[in-house]
Design brief:
This protein is of the alpha/beta class. The protein folds into 2 domains: about 120 residues, 3-Layer(aba) Sandwich (Rossmann fold); about 80 residues, Arc Repressor Mutant, subunit A (Orthogonal Bundle), CATH 1.10.10. It contains 11 helices and 6 strands. Strands 2-1-3-4-5-6 form a 6-stranded parallel β-sheet, sandwiched between helices. Helix 6 packs parallel to helix 8.
């Protein structure tokens, strides 16, 4: 039986204490190995000129070269790691911006310690990862009134939906096309269609029109 291949991680943040904290959390994980760290964006880019990792945990606000510019630079390169953004800010516009330019995950710094392992393992497979606080912000950004989406008239069905299904249901209610939903949530058209079919089954409606009506009746739009 071959040796288990570890997920190789580089950590970039302008605070040594945060880097040390993440290293301490990851040290207990047999599947993960920290192979490097950087205190600013310039060091990140220089390190990757001669080294590589599977995942880069990247702070947005760093001296010399910030996280946005690092993402933009990686987008030009053929070889680049899967990137998890760390940020003290949880503005939905920032989340969407960094995902558009190549990030695979987004963690609010306040919950990084709890969810960093899950985030690294998820993005290492090429999948997206959002911390729960970020998911809540994204979902509420698609609601016209920003109300809590977990308590609606037909709550029995609604409570059984995943966060992603809730996002898609709201967009369907706002008459977004499959392609527009795909672009907005950074997922494939096929994934949107799969979620749509699951929603129809879970909410016991006949088609996408039924989903839109459900969203309207339950004041999701």
């Amino acid at each position: 039986m071959g040796k288990l291949k570890k997920i190789r991680v580089h950590i970039a943040d302008d605070h040594n204490v945060l880097i040390d904290g993440i290293k301490a959390v990851l040290k207990t994980e047999s599947e993960i190995e920290v192979v490097g760290s950087s205190l600013n964006g310039e060091e990140v880019l220089e390190w990757y000129n001669t080294n590589s990792s599977d995942v880069l945990v990247l702070d947005i606000n760093m001296p010399k070269v910030d996280g946005i510019k690092v993402l933009q630079e990686f987008k030009k390169r053929d070889s680049r790691p899967h990137i998890v953004i760390l940020s003290s800010y949880d503005d939905v516009k920032l989340v969407k911006e960094v995902m558009k330019i190549g990030a695979k995950g987004f963690l609010a710094k306040k919950c990084a310690g709890e969810q960093i392992v899950e985030a690294i393992k998820t993005v290492s497979k090429g999948e997206q990862y959002f911390s729960k606080s970020i998911q809540d912000i994204i979902v509420s950004s698609f609601s016209s009134d920003g109300k809590d989406l977990s308590n609606h008239q037909d709550g029995t069905f609604f409570s059984s939906l995943t966060d992603r299904e809730k996002e898609i249901l709201i967009l369907i209610g706002q008459e977004y096309s499959t392609r527009e939903i795909s672009d907005s949530l950074f997922i494939s058209v096929n994934t949107v269609e799969t979620h749509r079919k699951n929603l129809i089954k879970k909410l016991k409606v006949k088609n996408a029109v039924g989903l839109a009506v459900y969203a309207y009746k339950n004041k999701l739009i």
